Amino acid sequence: MAYYRPPGPPPDPVLVRELTERQQQMRQQVRHEPLPGEPRLIAGCDSSFPTPDTILSVFVVLQLPTLELVEKVYSYGPVDMPYVPGFLSFREAPNVMEAFSKLKNPPDVIMVDGHGIAHPRRMGIAAHLGVLLDMPTFGVAKQKLTGRFTEPGTERGSIAPLLDNKTDEVIGQVIRSKDKVLPLFVSPGHRCDQAAATRLTLACLRGYKLPEPTRLADHWAEQFKKEVREA
């Protein structure tokens, strides 16, 4: 996800407490389990903030294993919630859900441009979205949000575990998706396990740093932004 980080005063502590409680409640609903079967359709999800007050969320649906584009949709609208570090999923989720509702081809699993459980409270946007939809989701992020890792090998396909800073719990995997480029951070969201998240990420690579579902979601986001500006 591309995040707008506006300057301003510290967030309202009452709001932070409320959001923390909601995240903890949602965390109790998260399940990590193998996918029920081999997915036929995989979605890519990406959100960005064209202005401080608006959000554009995109879903693309691809066929597996060919990665042929089946469908693309977007939702563009206002953002009411202020920026609060660590709680961006609440800022994004309403518009993401609106975009998802436009799909005519429901995916079997969703790859989200963002984190799953590789989040300080284990509730990144992929986990958040999975709980809301009660669907298999996982996150593929370009930057680390929390945890520590040993740099994986420089070759495509090299993998290293992402560990919790305090407990050494494995909260994701660090994957080199292309030779000698910065790695990706892959973690399960909901109703998906790490093995499936890693396998699908690798299966969706086509020579770019980003796997095709999130790469194409980002690509179409740029096209849809032009539509929004011209409307």
TrEMBL record:
Annotated site location: Interaction with target DNA: 83
EC number of this enzyme: 3.1.21.7
Catalytic activity entry: Endonucleolytic cleavage at apurinic or apyrimidinic sites to products with a 5'-phosphate
Keyword Transport: no
Superkingdom per UniProt: Bacteria
Record keywords, A-Z: Cytoplasm, DNA damage, DNA repair, Endonuclease, Hydrolase, Magnesium, Metal-binding, Nuclease
CC cofactor: Mg(2+)
Keyword presence, Cell division: no
Principal location class: cytoplasm
Record's subcellular location: Cytoplasm
Binding site for Mg(2+): 46, 113
Top EC group: hydrolase
HAMAP family to which the protein is assigned, alphabetical: Endonuclease_5 (MF_00801)
PANTHER family: ENDONUCLEASE V (PTHR28511:SF1)
Function of the protein: DNA repair enzyme involved in the repair of deaminated bases. Selectively cleaves double-stranded DNA at the second phosphodiester bond 3' to a deoxyinosine leaving behind the intact lesion on the nicked DNA.
Family under the similarity heading: Belongs to the endonuclease V family.
Protein name: Endonuclease V
Species, as recorded: Hymenobacter saemangeumensis
Gene: nfi
